[in-house]
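ATP-citrate synthase ATP-grasp domain-containing protein structure dump, as promised
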Amino acid sequence: MAAKPVREYFGKQLLAKYLGEASGGEFEFEGRGMLVKSGASDPASPSSWAALLAAHPWARDARLVAKPDQLIKRRGKAGLLAIDKSFDECRAWVDARMNATIDVEGVEGVLHTFLVEPFVPHAQADEYYVCVVSNREGEELLFCKDGGVDVGDVDAKAKRLQVPLGESAAPDALAAALLDGVPEARKPKLARFLATLLGVYRQLHFVYMEINPIGRVRSMETNAVLLMKGDSWPGIRGTGLTHKSPSGFWLGSDAPKRLILKVDLNDNRPPLADDSDGEGDDEEDEEGGEEEDEEDEDEDEPPPPEPKRQRRR
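C-alpha cells r here:
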C-alpha cells in the first residue's frame, strides 16, 4: 500500500466525524471549513464565492482564518496566513494570492487552493503540538507543550511515547510520558483526548498525523497522511472523501516519501474498503504471513531504514 497525503480540509473532516463518535461526544473537533479554488472570483462558476457562502452560511458573520491548503510547510513563517478576518477580508486576501507564483524555502509554484475556516481565539500559552507517526513497531506519539508557529525543533524538544502494535495507551500513561509542564487541571482531559486520537488514527489507517497547535483540546492546523489500497480509502465509512493525492510543485524535492507496510503479527488484519480488485489477494496475504514468520527467525538480516518524518506547518 502507498501512503498518500490529504489536504488539511479533508483531514479535519475525518477527525470531526470520528473523534466525536469514538469519545462518546466528549471531544468535538472543529470541522467547519470551505475549500476555495481557482475560479472562485467568477460569478458563473459553481464554486464561486457566492456559491461557497450559500453552502456555508456560518462564514457570513464569523471571524475566519484563510490559508493555502497545498501541503506547504510553515505557512505562518511564509506570510501565508490571514487570521481573525471577516468573510470579505478573507475573500480579498485569497483573491490577491490566487494563481500567484510564490517561492517557499526554494520551492516555486502556483497557489490555487485555499482553506477558509473559523478562527478559534486562544492565548499562545494554550498552544500545544502533537504528532503521531507509524513505524515498524507501532505508533510513536510526540508532544510539545509549546506549540504554534514558533514550535521550533520538534525532534529535539518533544516528549515521546512508543505504543506497540496491538496495545493501547492508557490516559494515565500518556499523561506521565508526554504532559510534563502542562497545567495539572488540564492533564486528565488532554490525556483522554490523546488516547482517543490514537484510536481514531489507527481506525482510519493514518500513517502520519500532525496537529499544530491544539488549543485547550480544540484543533487548529492538521496535516495527515493515510494508507491507501489502489484508489480506495480503507476502513473509512461514509461518503464525501474524494480528494486524490495532490501533485505539483509542492511535492517537489520535499515531497512526503513515506511507504509503510504495517505487519500485525497478531493476525488482526484491518478490513479494506475493497478487497475484490485482484484475484488471489487472500492467498498472497497468507503466504506473506508465513514468509514473515520465517524472516523473523533470521536475525542476520538487518531491518530496512526507518522512513524520515516530514512535517508541514
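The first strand starts at residue 2 and ends at 6.
lmk if u need the other ones
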